[in-house]
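Why does this matter for the project? Reviewers at the last site visit asked to see concrete outputs rather than summary tables. In response, this paragraph embeds two records directly. Each consists of the residue sequence and, immediately after it, the corresponding structure tokens. Nothing has been edited or filtered.
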Amino acid sequence: MDITLRGIGLRIESFTHDLFFAMRVLYKAPLFTIAVVVTLSIAISVNVVAFGAINAVLFKQLPFANVKHLAFICNPLDAMVKKPECSESVFQTAHVKAFLGMHDPVEKSAMFQIMPGTITGLGIPQSRITAWSSTALFDVLQVQPEIGRFFIETDGEPGVHNVVISDRLWRSLYDANRDVLGKPIVLDGITYHIIGVAPSDFVLPDPADAELRSQTVDIFEAAPNEAMQWGPHSWSQAGLQLIEAVIIARIQPGFSSVAVQAQLDRVNAPFLLDEARQYGIRSTSLIPNPMFVSVEDWYSNVNDAHSLLTIVFLATLAVLLIACANVANLLLVRGTARQGELAIRSALGATRARIIQQLIIEMCVLAVISGILGVVLAYIELQLLTVLNSMLLPRMQDISIDGRVLLFICITVILAVALGGIIPAFFTTQENLADTLKSAGRGRDAAAGKIFRSLLVVLEIAVAFVVLVSAALLVRSFILIVQKPLGFNPHNTYIAAINLPQQYGTLNSYVTFANAAIAHIQAIPGVETVAISRGGTYLLKNYLRYSPDNTIGVTLPGMHQMSMPSIKVTPHYFASLRIPILRGRDFNAEDRLGSLPVVIISQDCATKLFLHTDPLGKHVQMSVIGSPNEQATIVGIVGNMVVASILPNWTYVPYAQHPASRFELSIRTYMENPQLRDEVASAIASFAPTVGIERFDSLEEEVMEAQTPQRTSAGLLGALALVALLLALGGVYAVVSYAVQRRTHEFGIRKAVGAQTSDILKIVLRSVAIYAIAGIAFGIVFSTFSTQALTNLLVQTSPFDLLSFLCVIVLLFVSIVAAAALPTINAMRIDPVVALRYE
């Protein structure tokens, strides 16, 4: 036992001695220490941020009780694609009732719709987000109220008007007064009574909310238990009552996803036959079949976050690899310079293992310092990203440095020690003692070490090339998006979204309100034109999301029905957005309810539907949500409207012929008006005091938001590419500086016998050019595989875009040559006599 304890004590003493010696050695070489710490800390920090984002989106527990048993019932966008769209699924109302009544393997299920509502009676009308839900919603989510109670089945009976409010609304309107229970609140002109308050950390699993923010909904309203008309997001079509809703279910433990889907298919089978019969479709295989999608799977893949984060994380790992190669090169250079010291220590009795231990401890000290500094930099980078754009990465508010991230940091530090320290330590100590002492100071360099340093430089250049090409492709894609004409002019145009309360219950009342709103807002000083649309700006912000209310079915003689994005507009909409009318006419006051149906189509739509024939005056069979199938006459052709480089086959129908309770006011002004929102709200309140503005945005801002995915991916990869380029150039600079320093004696002889500075510069740059060409060649090979992962993020750009590759090749080659030329030119300024005496 004493011998064992004595051995442990000696090891601890040896480690402590090596640790203090390492710190003293590093303190005496400040430039080397700073170079290594800065290089590693930058690489570690970007890896921490990227892994933190992946941790938040893919690994962190979602804020729902027993989330593994929660699932959405969703409809695919297309029967053949089988891709579910949980945020805007459309069902028959009979579907919903059947799904909510499912048992084994479903424990309980609920339905809800998200919509804006207007609170009145408390001063200025306030627009708030509400959820119209079945009474079982909170039971399915297994949530307990902060005060009061949640819904029970009797809250869904006719004539019962009870609501649950959010903690935010409770504190902002009622000062967190516990006497709020039972108090009335007027929502959309109807008086409700407050029965409970949701907890402050409650999160509604809304599939459209990728950020999973708490308290996005302020008021929860109980839906009637046996209503045939299931709220505002419902309509009739082809004899079917349809509804757009989110259905969420809690699955009983022990049932597989296959069993759950099988039960859903059995419940849905009769409705598929009914739907096929109503629409005249021969096969039920052509009708989308609802699918179960687990809540965990939905949020891990929402908004293609998985693809973007994976690419960013791989890019940060590439940066870490470049940094480790850089550090390994620096350590090899420093190890070569310390050959004399290490040889003397070996001569005094130190074994090779003992010297390697000392070198690894020095690297461990550097890696630990770099890790600590990397965490600090990661925190600063997260704050900076939050300030720049809170939506830059999915669920940014959940990105934090928790235990899993700290474990990743430890693994990163160990990886840095292994790649950057252990390998150089073995190369540094493999020299023969006698040869090392004889050649000290004569510029001799071990062949193995020289080859290894050259390979590291080539690796750095190849990896940097891959990251640079990826960034170049994304930047080129974004530039093409920005440069492509929109087809409309968003300058000085503002969008005010309106959702009419239930008291406006008829189509005529929608039209009456719309006409009054246009007249009152047009009277505001500085307003040029006002128009109404349903679907235009909505599709601008969600151009890849399906919404049946923004779609019409068009049938030409001898052709199947085609779905096309549709916008319901009033006269002067095209003038408001500066969309040119190429042929025909605009809608007018004669295009109203009861008049002959008309439609205006885009130029691209006209080309695809009618090829080279004139579409004006032609009749098409048109199916619009909420209206029976009808023959519509094409009365105009307008310019194409492009959204984030997507060119849909736009169709336009008169709002007065197809009124809707939700719409957007497009307001063009002569100049910017910061007070416009308040003025529009006052104008509406003057004739409709119960109607508030759901949202108010600049159309220019909405255009920028539509480009956010491409801007985000290009910005993140661009920043990482810049870091990778700088680190690679730093590695080239360090290696060339060392090589020039080691050959100073040789260069002195060359200059003494008549060589010019340009001759010596050519010698150095020739070897550097070989490194650059080899690195770029390997980078091209690697890029042909890696860039294919960018396909989903690229728009109008091939993963093998020749221009992007050529630009990166030129940029990288010129940068490498410049980085190599600087230390060479500085070294050539030395006097030949001094160089000849150099030892």
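We now turn to the second protein, recorded in exactly the same manner.
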Amino acid sequence: MGKRIITWAGREKRRQTNKAVGGSFLKTLTELITNSDSAIKRQLGLSHAVGLVDEMLKLKPGDRVDTAELKKSVPKRREGKILVQVYSKHRGLLPSRTCQIIDYGPGMTEAELDRNFGDYAKAKAKGQRTRSLFGRGALDVFLYHSNQYREDGVDPSAHIFSVKGGTLSHCRIYWGRDSKGEEDSIIQTDALGPVTPSLLKKQSLPSDLTPSGTVVRFLLADGTRIPHEGNFLPSLNSFYMLRIIAADPSMHVVVQRFRSDGLIEERLMYDFDLGTVIKRSHDTFRHERLGDIPVDILVARSDRKMTYDPTNYERRENGLLFVDDDDAVLDLTLLPEYDKNPLLSRIYGLVRLSGIRSKLENLLEAQRPEAVLSETRDGFDMKNEIARELFRLVEKHVRPVYDDEEKRERKGAGSRSSELDRKLKEALRELNKFHNEETDEGRTGRPEPKDPVGPLSFSHDNVRLVAGQERRVTLYADRNRIHEELNVVELTSNNSRVQVVPESELVVRRKGSKFQAIQITLSCPVTDETAMITATALGVDEQVLSTNLNVTDVSEPAQVVVPADLEFRPSRYNGKPSVENQLVLLVNLDAFPGLPLIRIRIKEREGAVTIGTERSEHIEIKTQKDWLMSGGNVAKVVFPYWGTAWGAKATIEAKAKRTDGRLGLSQCKVEFRQQQGPNQYEDVVYEAIERQILGEAAGKYVYVNSRPSLHQRLFGDSQETFDKALEDSSIAQMRVAGIVSDAVVYAVATTKYMKGGEKGLTIDESDPITAVREFVEAKRYELDAKLVRAFLKDNFGD
């Protein structure tokens, strides 16, 4: 008679690791970044909790959620650094698709490497203040990605190098044959010797690893998609499991991408959406197997509609972030029965469960183990009775808020009635029709294919852009070849300066219609750029489908209106968080002595907005001769601006001393407002404009200035009072129709003038005022009546 431990078959390990990581690039990096974050904080003697959650939970209903401002109240702590490296090209000893995560934490000895990575799903961190629970996160990553066959002969093993106590130790994890000849997972450890610069160089390790630290190195499996460049950092920043770490001001997570066109280095920085708190409550979850768990709930309403994808954690933005008191992220959900509701796309917040980690650990170590969280790290396991009871408690607090939000969204935009919504949509339809007809943007420049080829196809293979002007193209998606449930088409640009709107679109099957036409808007503020626009989706067989559109050039406008001294062009910008956005300032050198020094500052802001390569609040730029635009004495000054959250906004001011001793001054507004839809104009917005104008058309909005005293009397001081006046007062309706008509006609005139050529606006230089007036009056004559009819339809007659 004999006895032995029942072995765990290699194929089962493969199945478990595939289920846990599933080829997800974001999950892969998150597991390792989280481990490094915990190690560094243990070494520095810091709590895992950043303090930001505490500050958010101090907010009351009606307070604004501005985590950039809240971070100023978080106590300063010793700083740590994590380096994430992704190689898109072969470099030295590191082949393409190599990933490295480097931290300067306490490091590990050979024995510690064996203990930490030699046992699968063992509670190695039991009793420690850490985020680990199942004891398999990093191993799942290593086993999944090392389970690949490489035709190029490259070893796909995962490697961990670690320095501790002056010794460099090494751990290799791979799939190989065991003593019985069966394939299984294998760990091999060894001490490489005293750490020296030459030893570190031999292993392609950073030279500053000498005191202590760890380098994790592995090859991404072929099925793991790396996000496209334009969406790389935004995807990491907003991935729900990384949000709290990315929001930690004391932890510098630096991401380096080694590409064929050079090195790109950026820091993870996250802020929650700007919004307003609508619910704050406290309760206690009581369960016989867990004891008492204090529950703190904060619910907020974002200023925008967030991505609410119920099937894809990597895309989902809205929802309540469940965390413990160590800032470990447990889930992101509105609760399962609400996740599919598009009317709740603005809702986000926090649920903190204090002390839950040790209770969950005890359940896993019990005689009959029980997992309340899914082993795939996809949140709470809804098959578990404890998880269902917890969610019932949370639902008791949030359901009234959800019900109110549904009513609000069904009513229309903000406080608008359905009737006002209808009138605005009709007015906007007339504005968009006028814009497309006048600027020729409703046409592509050549016939679009009537019978697109393939599941995804653009109307063009190549396009050229004009700086500061939008260009529209069409993407055709075969409704029957796109996955019926995972039906999202994602659009990305490999150059952050070339923007593509929208970034995603749902493909819906429709009887009798084979192709869905998706209108795409491309734009770029600066010249001499190229880009590849990529559309990707999952096919019915869950294989990745893709197609590309090349932006071959971005040229200057045919004509430029010369500013009096200096002027931002345009006066409003819409940016994207976590990427470099560009501002353009035109400088008329005839107004300045020599090449002026321009002082630029952020005058006011909400949320984290910065300018310049150093991301500060004020910069100085010396104008260069190389920046002169052709055909005149105007310099084009281009500099970056940044934001960390949707909803952030700022007013930016530039000034320089003129030849006559006065100051040349210009201001622009930047916003981080997600743009959706194919139309040029999406809404009429009431807000303060510091220039002496009644309104302006910029981006996807037509703005009515709230500063004039007449407007204060007619429309009040907020968007809500403006909407109310627009609904009730015929005088207000007539006034808005005139302002909006003026703004759009002038915007169209500017576009046509800059376009030049046969379809542009030609101005008689001997009498430019009369020429512009003739165009404006003719077009207003055409447009005014249509807008008045839209706003006053009930009293105007049909």
